[in-house]
Structure formats: C-alpha cells, structure tokens
Design brief:
The chain has 2 helices and no strands. It has one domain. With about 100 residues, the chain is mostly helical. The chain is rod-shaped, with a radius of gyration of 24 Å.
C-alpha cells in the first residue's frame, strides 16, 4: 500500500519527551504541595493574617489543581503515543496482508 509508512521508533522517542514533562510536573506539584503544608500558620491569627492565609490558600489550591489537570493531560498524551507506537506495526502488517496485489 503506497503512502502509508509505519515508523514506531519516532513515536517512542516522542513519548519519552512527554515522560520528561510528566515527571517535571509531578516534581513541581509535590514541591509546591509540601512547601505549603510545611508553611503552617505563616500569616498569624489576627484578622489580616487570616484574610491573607485564606487568599493564599485559595490561589495555591487553584494552582495545584491546574498543575494536576495538566499532569493528567500529559499522562493521557504519553499513554496514547505509547499505544500508537505499540499498535502501528500490527496495523501495518494487517494492511499489507489485506491489500490486493497491484498490476
């Protein structure tokens, strides 16, 4: 079949790039999460401190949620690429087996 070439090796290479991003996002998430947990009562117990803490916690929670959502998306991309790289050779073989000879 012309015009259809399966090259799984570049897909595996692309998947490795996403693996790097995935690990970096996880490291950022856990560093931020653990840092916030270790900060404890950083703003004090007066009204201004409580307001500051509430604002900071809300913003930090939103940031952590966005990092987690991005991490999940990267996981999905990496897993999909790995599945493509694994299944393409089988698809190529099936197409070749079912392609009538030309000529």
């Amino acid at each position: 079949m012309t015009g259809f070439t399966v090259e799984p090796d570049p897909l595996y290479g692309t998947g490795a790039q996403y693996e790097f991003v995935r690990s970096q996002l996880a490291a950022i998430y856990y560093a931020a999460h653990d840092g916030l947990a270790a900060a404890g009562n950083f703003a004090g117990n007066d009204a201004a401190g409580k307001a500051c803490k509430a604002t900071c916690e809300r913003i930090a929670s939103e940031v952590l949620d966005r990092i987690d959502t991005t991490h999940q998306g990267i996981n999905s991309i990496a897993d999909t690429i790995a599945n493509w790289a694994t299944s393409y050779p089988g698809i190529d073989q099936a197409l070749e087996a079912n392609t009538p000879p030309t000529g």
